[in-house]
Amino acid sequence: MPRTALRVRRWAAIAVLGGLLAGCGTGEADTGEPAAAPGGAGARTSTDVRPIEAATRITDAKGVTVSLPKPPEKIVCLVALCDDILVELGMTPTATNSQVLAHPRFLGREKAAEIPVVPGGFLGPEVEAILSHRPDLVIGLEDTHGKLAPALKGATAFWPVQPGSWQDSVGYLRDLAALTGRTEQGEKAEKGFRGRLAQAEKAKSDKTALIVYGSDENFGVATPETDVAAGLFPKISHYPWKSRGVDGSYSLEEVLARDVDVLFVETLSFGAPDGKLSDKLAKNPLWSRIPAVRNGKVIEVDSEVWAKGRGTRSLGVVLDEATAALR
Hints:
Residues about 1-40 have low confidence and may be disordered. This protein has helices at about 5-10, 80-90, 110, 125-130, 140-145, 150, 165-180, 185-200, 235, 250-255, 275-280, 290-295, 305-310, 310-325; strands spanning about 55-60, 65, 75, 95, 135-140, 155-160, 210-215, 220, 260-265, 300. The chain is built from 14 helices and ten strands. It starts with a helix and ends with a helix. The chain is globular and about 60 Å long. It has about 325 residues and is an alpha/beta fold.
C-alpha cells in the first residue's frame, strides 16, 4: 500500500484503547459493562447513561486536563471526532478541516459548505488561520496536532484527543457536553448510540464481515485493535481479523480463505477522485472468487464517516449500514 494511504488510515485507526475517563465534571466514560479484550465481542452493551454534570474543568481518559473560564462557544475542529461531537450537541464548529459535515446525517453539503475550512490540510493546519477565528477551544488529534500546542498556548485552549475505541468516543462526547453545558444533548446522544449498538448485538449476524481500505489495488484490513469502527464488528458479526501492526496486512489469498460474506470498502482519495477501490481490486482474478463479490455483497462506504468520524453519530451510521448489509 502506498505510504500516503497508510498514513491516512493510521490517523483513522489509532490502537490506544482507553479505560474509564476520570477527573472533574463528567470525566468518566461509563461503559456500563465489564472490560473486554480488544476486538472481542465482550458483554452486552448497557443502555444505561449516567447524568452528565456541567463543568469548566475535565480530565479525559488519557489524563489530559482541559480547563476553561466559561463554556466554549467558538470551537475549531482539526479532527472529525470534534465535528461529530459538536453536531451531536446541536453545535457547529467555527472552522474545520474535515469533510464529514457534508454527510446527510450531519449537516449536508449545502450547510457544511458554510463552515470555514482551516487551510493546510489535516497534517499541517495553519496556526494563524486557526487563531484568526478567535476560538475558545481547539480540538485536534494528539499524535498529529500535538505539535501545535506551543504555538496556540496563551491564545486559546488546545485539547489533544486520541480515540481508540467507541468507549473513548463516548467519553469525549461526555467531556465536551460537560464543558459546553449541553448535558442533556450529550446524554441523549450517548443513549441513542448505546441503544443502536445493543439492538445490533441482539440480532448479531453469523456472516463473516470485512472492512478493507486503500487508494489503489493494494489494500489494508481494518482491525478491531486499530480501528474504532472495526471495533464494533465482533459485536455484530463474525469478524476474524486481528492486527498485524501498522506495517502488516492481509493478502487477497487470505481474504479468500476466510469466506467473507459481506465486504465493506473504504476508498481513500487524495485530491481528485480516481475511482473506487473495489473496481481496482476487481482486476485481480482472485477477487471474483470471494463469496461477497460473487453474491453482490461488496459495499463501498463513505470513508469520511467510517474511517475518520469515530464519534457516536458516525458510529451510528456505521451500525445502521453494517447491520442492514449483514441481514
